[in-house]
Amino acid sequence: xxxxQGLIVQVLPAWNFIASYHxxxxxxxxxxxxxxxxxxVFIDYLVERLGQExxxx
Length: 57
Known about the structure:
By secondary structure, the chain is an all-alpha fold. It has a domain at 21-57. It is built from 1 helix and no strands. The protein has one helix at 37-51. The chain starts with 36 loop residues before the first helix and ends in a 6-residue tail after the last helix. The model has no long low-confidence stretch (mean pLDDT 78).
């Protein structure tokens, strides 16, 4: 909905997280006492999306 309204933009439209995902991903950001809300939302999104993938041996 936010994408349709132009509130957010798609950055890498052809990118898909595929191949041999084994339950670990790293997200790096600059250290700060304050975490911007957009970063918090992005982290929560990644946790939700990547956490849904079944672990494969």
